[in-house]
Amino acid sequence: MSITRRNARRSVRILGVASASVALVLGVTNTALACNIREFSAEATCDGSKGAIVVTDKDPSGTPATITVFLENNGADAKQVGEPQEIKGSKKGTTVSFSEDWKPNATYRVHVKAGNQVDKDITPNVTTPSTACKTEDTPTPTPPATPSPSKPESTPPASETPTPSGSESTSTAPAETSSNAPSPAAGDSNLAETGANSNTGLIAGVAGALVVVGGGAVFFGMRRRGSKSGS
User: Fold this and answer.
1) In 50-189, which ranges are E strands?
2) What does the domain layout of the chain look like in residue ranges?
3) 118-147 confidence digits (pLDDT tens)
4) Which residues contact 114 (CB under 8 A, 6 or more apart)?
5) How far apart are CA 14 and CA 8, in angstroms?
6) DSSP bridge partners of 119
7) CA angle 26, 40, 125 (to 5 degrees)
8) In angstroms, how far is the first alpha carbon of the chain from the final one?
9) Domain spanning 37-127: which CATH class is it, in words?
10) What is the pTM for the complete model shown?
């Protein structure tokens, strides 16, 4: 069977489409396996009181890369943090750490150089947290134990003599104060106690006199009546 020009052209077209498809697939595959800046990330971390800038490489192709970190100040490099470090990425992710006593709200620029494929900075720049790493607490030394003083000997019990209470002390009659009035004689004091120095004796005397006078008057009156009746 002879091949016509039409069939030859059709065969050439088919071969061209197939070649283009293979080239496209190979290109996509190479692009997927190529190192890319988007596969790198960085952050500021703390390990106790120590700070660090940690860079992670998730390049599945494992292309070796060099990482360099710079402290920024007003958009310019203030200093380089440590020395550049090599890293070989993986699909799971590979990290490299730069020790840095970073300050709050500081900015760091991280540069990645991977052969002829990557020569760029990780964007955006790394900004540290607003709080610095926690300072480890220094343990306070425990003071030596102070020996407790010896227990004093027990004192003998107090005397059992009762102490007069406040009411008893206040109820004591005050001492008699001297008086300017003359004191009665010794003899008069007994009469005062019996009532002999009162007006009782005078009254008794007057009464007795009246009795005598009355009896005499009665006697003379009766006698006078008798003499009258005899005459």
Assistant:
1) 50-57, 64-73, 76-88, 94-99, 107-114, 118-121, 126-127
2) 37-127, 199-226
3) 999 999 999 999 999 987 655 666 666 666
4) 35, 59, 63, 64, 65, 66
5) 10
6) 113
7) 140
8) 237
9) mainly beta
10) 0.47
